[in-house]
Amino acid sequence: MRITKRTNIAIRVLMYCGVNGDRLVTKSEIATRCNTSENHLAQVINQLAQLGYLYTQRGRNGGMELSRPMKDIRIGEIFRAIEANVPLAECFADVDNTCPLTDACLLRNAISQAAEAFYAHLDTVTLDQLVCGNDSLEQLLATNVCCSRVPA
Question: Contact at 8 Å (CB) between 137 and 34?
Fold first, then answer.
């Protein structure tokens, strides 16, 4: 299983916002610190905001922050939401499936079960587990971690 670039960026954005939870952060600072393009980042930020994980504020003093406590953000939910439209294999694609074995192949079911086990494990991981107490991440992303902050 391969994680898409979009999901990778989404997790980086959430971790960055978590580490910098005491202020609004900007797209440009995330792009710089997380080594990603602002174009990809804008799409991911928009999606995370639509899914209710980020609060965004436009304007001169704008930026973004987590819209819920880190302990309530489950990594499995993020992966499912972002990866939802990406088929695991050709036989999972509605339009592009040309595999002649689809109707008889048992591998599809095995792959589905394996993917669900993967997501189920990630459901046990919360954003605060990735951020709080992670001194190495803090050193990379900020000078101040505030893990007890609860968004308004």
Answer: no
Residue extents of the structural domains in the chain:
5-84+126-141
- DSSP, collapsed to helix, strand or coil, labels residue 19 as helix
Regarding the domain delimited by 5-84+126-141, which CATH topology (the fold level of the hierarchy) does it fall under? Arc Repressor Mutant, subunit A (1.10.10)
Buried/exposed code over 137-149 (b: 16+ C-beta within 10 A; e: otherwise): bbeebbeebebee
With 0-12 / 13-18 / 19 or more C-beta atoms within 10 angstroms meaning exposed / middle / buried, residue 72 is: middle
Question: Could you read off the pLDDT of 81-95 as tens digits, one per residue?
Answer: 998 766 566 566 667
Please measure the distance between the N-terminal and C-terminal CA atoms of the chain and give it in whole angstroms.
37
pLDDT in tens, 92-116: 666 776 777 777 778 878 888 888 8
Give the dihedral of Cα atoms 108, 112, 117, 118; nearest 10 deg: 90
Q: How far is CA 10 from the centre of its chain?
A: 3
Instruction: Kindly report the pTM of this predicted structure.
Output: 0.82
Greatest CA separation for the chain: 58
